[in-house]
Please model this.
Amino acid sequence: MRAAAVIAAIALACMSLAAADPLEGRWQINGDGALLDIRQSAEHAASLEIAWCDGPDLTVAPGAVIGTATPSGTPGVYDCKIALDPRPDNPSARRAGDFRLTLKGADTFTLEPYRRKRSLSLWRWLPYLFRVTVINEDNRPADLDGATRVGRDPQFIVI
Model:
């Protein structure tokens, strides 16, 4: 009977370790950028909090929650809302940007912004008066912005 209780305790401990989200941990944005903690949210079990630890902007308090990450249907892909300017004295601090966070292995992730917008088409209102088309082309690669994990041994051997 005692051995069964020990086995059940070990199985429960293994299952709790496996349940941890792979995104949880401490991350540094693009080398010398902000240091962020990503942890399980206290309010919502399905989402993660993105908290500020340290960075070049000293007006942001350490531990301030600056965003959330919600897992998507694809493993390793998250829908994130992150404050565009996390300073507390900024009146537009509540504005958040939408990002797609993609895990690239165990120790890196990339951030790709996306927009949700509505637009009014004057094209239909003025059919033949002025047909000016403005096309904005963005040749910037999508996977430049990202972060690396801090405080954990690398998953490879350095020679």
Observations:
- The CA atoms of residues 3 and 9 lie 10 Å apart.
- Strands lie at 25-29, 35-40, 48-54, 65-71, 77-83, 96-103, 108-114, 146-150.
- The two ends are 50 Å apart (CA to CA).
